[in-house]
Amino acid sequence: MKKELKKFIVKGEFKAGIKWEKFTKVVESYSERSAVEKVFSTIGSNHKLKRYMIRILEVKEA
Question: Where in the chain are the domains?
Answer without folding.
Answer: 6-61
